UniProtKB/TrEMBL annotation:
<dbReference type="InterPro" id="IPR016163">
    <property type="entry name" value="Ald_DH_C"/>
</dbReference>
<feature type="compositionally biased region" description="Basic and acidic residues">
    <location>
        <begin position="10"/>
        <end position="23"/>
    </location>
</feature>
<feature type="region of interest" description="Disordered">
    <location>
        <begin position="1"/>
        <end position="23"/>
    </location>
</feature>
<keyword id="KW-0560">Oxidoreductase</keyword>
<comment type="similarity">
    <text>Belongs to the aldehyde dehydrogenase family.</text>
</comment>
<dbReference type="Pfam" id="PF00171">
    <property type="entry name" value="Aldedh"/>
</dbReference>
<dbReference type="InterPro" id="IPR016162">
    <property type="entry name" value="Ald_DH_N"/>
</dbReference>
<dbReference type="InterPro" id="IPR016161">
    <property type="entry name" value="Ald_DH/histidinol_DH"/>
</dbReference>
<feature type="active site">
    <location>
        <position position="274"/>
    </location>
</feature>
<dbReference type="InterPro" id="IPR029510">
    <property type="entry name" value="Ald_DH_CS_GLU"/>
</dbReference>
<dbReference type="InterPro" id="IPR016160">
    <property type="entry name" value="Ald_DH_CS_CYS"/>
</dbReference>
<protein>
    <submittedName>
        <fullName>Aldehyde dehydrogenase</fullName>
    </submittedName>
</protein>
<comment type="subunit">
    <text>Homotetramer.</text>
</comment>
<feature type="domain" description="Aldehyde dehydrogenase">
    <location>
        <begin position="39"/>
        <end position="502"/>
    </location>
</feature>
<dbReference type="InterPro" id="IPR015590">
    <property type="entry name" value="Aldehyde_DH_dom"/>
</dbReference>
<dbReference type="GO" id="GO:0016620">
    <property type="term" value="F:oxidoreductase activity, acting on the aldehyde or oxo group of donors, NAD or NADP as acceptor"/>
</dbReference>
Length: 507
């Protein structure tokens, strides 16, 4: 799998050197908490380290924010809302969002490299993240101008009209798999709607959000966006529970999502949750083999499998199964698992050692149950990658659909394969998980594709493609995959504004 011909000791050194040099270039100068437009230490004086999952080395030391910091940040956000941001017109907010998009574009390569260092994703994929970040801010820049209410026909003597007003201050908790992109998904609609934000990045990957604030400090009025780095229970929970936020948006595990929902209940905050998934990818027998294999590879191995939408359960029709899985396994084994800063790398390390271990535990569980491994099932046999949290691309066959490895989100480069013949039985199995985030269908028969799209319990269905996320596409889950939608205009209108109805007597 490793492509370089250097001895592994030399490769280890060159990976370390490449990462240290890149870190020196792209880590931003200000790494403290960003509150009210100032860089401040955490009230408790505590810090923590964020690590490079490729080398295991420390990248940077950041602040461990606590309840007091969240209090300060929420207060700064309300001050900004009351004194400046609520006076900004839609056109003015549009210009701010456009400028944010421009700053991301100007610094795209540095943002991408920093994301690769902190998260471990291949540089080619980190660049795509940054393109999407900029495009997403630009989409919401435009959306500021169409965010309006309705006039409701209401009989004689009354004029009923709705306004869509911002909440004021919202809390936003984001994960580590697409650190800057998930921040953009949340900040875009919040700011477009006229809210101020207190945002908590994931403790595993705080750096690109901090870099964003370094780059846009002069673009946003002080306090419109406040960033408090720190751990979930210390900084996330006080944010979700804070009496003065009006809405909390969370992306992460279903387990913590349930806790956040309880926390939000204390003050009846509005809530959106974007949680885990265990999404089916359904292959019909008429599929073009080569294209279907490529789509399957994207579905499960993109971002090292660390996608909430990952197509982690493959349902392939029995007519083509043998041929299909043979081609799939050989393509999976040909992926370039290496230093994610290298252009040719297609699979990087998992975000942390802990996450790699979690993935390997699921693999062990499948192995113990007697499953068959079509590919992977272990860590790469490459000394140069030994310090990184790598897991080989893994395909599992002959596994019971009730196995924990099939039912639960693994969030790593692991897919389970099922063969189907009877359509109804296949759909029943495809829907037989607690999740309902996404699904993929591969067929040239448009009628079948459409029927299947309607039959799957999923918030997002891709046909003849997978993991495509253009700006404007509402995204979110059915069942335990979440509440509400992100990305599209629906996020702004339904989830970052509240409706005020004004009923005027005409007589
Ligand atoms: P997590 O749900 O603990 O972390 C996500 C965010 O929530 C982080 O910012 C974290 O600091 C915060 N958080 C943690 N505990 C909190 C609490 N009590 N109150 C408020 N905020 C809290 O996810 P984790 O532990 O990083 O990953 C575990 C699993 O979750 C993964 O293996 C994966 O299956 C799933 N996951 C799903 C994601 C998605 O995109 N849907 C993203 C990240 C993880
Ligand atoms: Mg990290």
């Amino acid at each position: 799998m490793a492509t370089e011909s250097q001895p592994s000791g030399d490769r280890t050194d060159s990976i370390s050197q490449r990462h240290r040099e890149t870190a020196a270039d792209v880590i931003p100068p200000n790494l403290k908490l960003y509150i009210g437009g100032d860089w401040v230490p955490s009230s408790a004086g505590e810090t923590f380290e964020t690590r490079d999952p490729t080398t295991g080395e420390t990248l940077a030391t950041v602040q461990a924010g606590t309840r007091e910091d969240i209090d300060r940040a929420v207060e700064a956000a309300w001050t900004a809302y009351d004194e400046t941001w609520s006076d900004y017109s839609a056109a003015e907010r549009q210009r701010v969002l456009e400028e944010i998009a421009a700053r991301v574009e100007e610094n795209r390569e540095a943002f991408a490299r920093l994301e690769t260092l902190d998260n471990g994703k291949p540089i080619s994929e980190a660049r795509i993240d940054m393109e999407l970040v900029a495009d997403h801010f630009r989409y919401f820049a435009g959306a500021t101008r169409v965010n309006g209410g309705e006039t409701i026909p209401s009989g004689d003597g009354q004029h009923v009209q709705t306004l869509r007003e911002p909440y004021g201050v919202v809390g936003q908790i984001i994960p580590w798999n697409f650190p800057l992109l998930m921040a953009a998904w949340k900040l875009g609609p919040a700011l477009a709607a006229g809210n101020c934000s207190v945002l908590k990045p994931a403790e595993e990957t705080p750096l690109t959000v901090l870099k964003l604030m370094n780059e846009i400090d002069d673009v946003l009025p002080d306090g419109v966006v406040n960033v408090v780095t720190g751990f979930g229970p210390d900084a996330g929970e006080p944010l979700a529970k804070h009496p003065d936020i009006r809405k909390i948006a969370f992306t992460g595990s279903t387990e913590v999502g349930k806790q956040v929902m309880t926390q939000a209940a204390e003050h009846v905050h509005d809530i959106t949750l974007e949680l885990g998934g265990k999404s089916p990818l359904i292959i019909y027998p008429d599929a073009d083999l080569e294209k279907a294999v490529a789509t399957t590879i994207t579905a499960i191995f993109y971002n090292t499998g660390e996608c909430c939408s990952a197509g982690s359960r493959l349902f392939v029709h029995s007519d083509i199964k043998d041929e299909f899985v043979e081609a799939l396994a050989s393509t999976a084994e040909d992926l370039t698992v290496d230093d994610p800063l290298l252009e040719e790398t297609t699979l990087g390390p998992k975000v942390t050692e802990e996450q790699a271990e979690r993935t390997l535990e699921y693999i062990e569980e499948a192995r113990d149950a007697g499953a068959d491994f079509l590919a992977g099932g272990d860590v790469p046999d490459d000394e140069a990658l030994a310090e990184g949290s790598f897991v080989s691309p893994t395909l599992i066959d002959d596994i019971d659909h009730d196995n924990r490895a099939v039912q639960e989100e693994i969030f790593g480069p692991v897919q389970e394969v099922f063969e189907w013949t009877d359509y109804d039985a296949m759909i029943e199995l495809a829907n037989d998980v607690d999740y309902g985030l996404a699904a993929g269908i591969i067929t040239n028969d448009i009628t079948k594709a459409y029927e299947t799209a309607k039959d799957v319990e999923a918030g997002n269905v891709w046909i003849n493609q997978y993991n495509a996320f253009p700006a404007g596409m509402p995204f979110g889950g059915y069942k335990q995959s979440g509440i509400g939608r992100e990305v599209g205009y629906e996020a702004l209108a339904e989830h970052y504004t509240q409706t005020k109805t004004i009923n005027l007597a005409l007589e």
